[in-house]
Amino acid sequence: MSNLASYAVTSDHSRGRLVQETAPVGRSEFQRDRDRIIHSTAFRRLEYKTQVFVNHEGDLFRTRLTHSLEVAQIGRSIARNLHLNEDLVEAITLAHDLGHTPFGHAGQDALNECMKDYGGFEHNLQSLRVVDVLEERYATFDGLNLCFETREGILKHAAKRTAKKLGDVGARFLENTSPSLEAQLANFADEIAYNNHDVDDGLRSGLLTHEQLDNVTIFSRHLAQIKQQYPALIGRRLTHETIRSMINTLVTDLTQQSILNIKNAKIGTLADVHAAPLLIGFSREIKEQQQELKKFLRDHLYQHYRVVRMSNKAAHNIKRLFSSFNANIKLLPIQYQIKFQQEKQQAIADYIAGMTDRYAIREYRRLFAIELE
Ligand code: MG
Question: Helix or strand or coil: residue 214?
Fold first, then answer.
């Protein structure tokens, strides 16, 4: 990759993989990481995991898979604008949600509660566990054996107690240093993607209306612009044009503000990036507008009674599965019974976190329903 900034991560200077391998031919180290992620089992499962709307609620809502693809697209655009390593950003963004439970945040919160006496559960750490340990594909190592920089990007946050157990990839949480700009921007790509597609899915589902959203600064401003440009436009096209232009504003603002931050901090090398505070960010104005939109989505979409009802069912499903397995491990499939000997409750968490929405629903039925043929 030519024309990379002097502070970008380069494939040639990667800190390497946990298990040493020969250098890839015809692709960079981070392209190899990306390819391994796409071929993983956990990646395919994302197709049937909830983002906000449960998988069976409709064919047009985002799933974790389409969410991850949108994050990768936005991340790559920003990386290219900033002359950062696009392949690394693509690998991080495609892997960032691999550890998510079924049923979105409701599933993660329920599993965390179940695991509170056994070290807790956090989807971000679980994503790292998927790529480091859980995938079973290669002859000579567990997991996908990804490069340090990809793993660093996947691990968005970690408590100090947890970080101590994670070796090199946890060190920055103890030393208070910053991750690469590629890792920083992956988080923003995630945020830009979900804020915008949740508006879209919220409108499509009828849980949100244009009238409500007209009270949200960033939406109303873009809606007014589009109406002025295309006075006759209504319905889906009006929504899509508004969202398209919001994404464009956010990507442009993030790019411009980050360039300014990098310049003001006099960043010249990757070492400077690690030593500096976080440099990727929105302008103050856009940051405030993003926070307003987030609050709106929390109050009106994520807390909408129809979403809360589904979340409640999801939590019930996960908790009942967990407590039954934990009370009698003979209910677990054989390979997880074997894992339980070593890993204890983490083995149950791995089993549940790996389920798709519909697998979890079927598993619940297999465990608790007595039905005649
Ligand atoms: Mg995400």
Answer: coil
DSSP per-residue letters across 226-245: HHHH-TT--HHHHHHHHHHH
Q: What is the DSSP string of 132-176?
A: III----SS-SS---BHHHHHHH-----HHHHGGGGGGGHHHHHT
Cα of 122 from ligand 1 centre, angstroms:
13
How many C-beta atoms surround the C-beta of residue 152 within 10 A? 24
C-alpha 11/C-alpha 372 separation (Å) is 58
Are residues 215 and 88 in contact, defined by beta-carbon separation less than 8 angstroms? no
What's the CA-to-centroid distance between 336 and ligand 1, angstroms? 27
% of the chain at pLDDT higher than 90: 87
CB 23 within 8 A of CB 39: no
Token pair of 271, please? 């070492």
> Is-contact 208 301, C-beta < 8 A?
yes
Q: How far is the CA of 190 from the centre of ligand 1 (A)?
A: 5
What is the rounded end-to-end Cα distance, in angstroms, of the chain? 60
Q: Of 329, 337, 355, nearest to 100 (Cα)?
A: 355
DSSP for 104-142, written as a single string: HHHHHHHHHHHTGGGT---HHHHHHHIIIII----SS-S
Q: Which candidate, 230, 277, 278, 280, places its Cα nearest to that of 250?
A: 280
Q: What is the pLDDT of residues 15-74, one digit of tens each?
A: 999 999 999 999 999 999 999 999 999 999 999 988 776 666 666 678 999 999 999 999
Sign of the torsion formed by the C-alpha atoms of 133, 134, 136 and 137: negative
Say how many Å lie between the CA of residue 128 and the centre of ligand 1: 14
CA 296 – CA 193 distance, rounded (Å): 16
All residues with CB under 5 Å from ion ligand 1: 97, 190
CB-CB contact of 278 with 299 (8 Å) = no
